[in-house]
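Collaborator request, handled under Task 6.
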Amino acid sequence: MEGGEHASNRKRVSRLERALENFITSVKESHMRTESELREFKDEMLNYKEENRQQIREMNIKWGEMAKKLGTITEDLVAPSIPKIVKEEFGLEVTDLMVRRKKKLTDGRSKEYDAIAVADECVFIDETKSTLDSEDVKDFIKDIQEFRDYFPEYEKNKIIGVLASLYVDEDVIKYAERSEFLVLAVGDKLMEVMNTKGFKSKEW
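Structure tokens returned to the collaborator:
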């Protein structure tokens, strides 16, 4: 009789062990399914964000190309972005923004600056090109150096050079950085800073 009870107990234990194993297996499978579903959902979200980001970038580029055809890239893309960028990068409020500011001197020299933004003691001088290359960077150095000849009222202000374009090649960005110019181009935002993180502009 006692042996029969032991056998019956062993059977019950065995059934419980199998049930426990089945339960653990079921939980593991469910966990694996949940992890797989979460990974799939995460991948879908990343793909969606990247697609959305690419669409925004393409839309900005198309808008930039349209502005380029109309010859209004400075007015339509760059100038409206300057106050925001000055605020984000320098913590300053632009109090005066002049677009296509032209000045003629008594000696006959004349110069047009695409955009001039005054913010506190700083004056940001922008040169916008549909295609920016190294020669443009060299020419801009001269424009910056001559700026106070045309605008002596800013004699005591710090001058910061800004170069802008629809797209800027990495090598040109590096070259402009060596001249310590801020570089803007079309990105995820309509215009954004292309300089290396931590870059500091020169104050002329």
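The cover message to the collaborator said: "The chain has a mean pLDDT of 82. The chain has four helices and six strands. Please let us know whether this matches your experimental observations."
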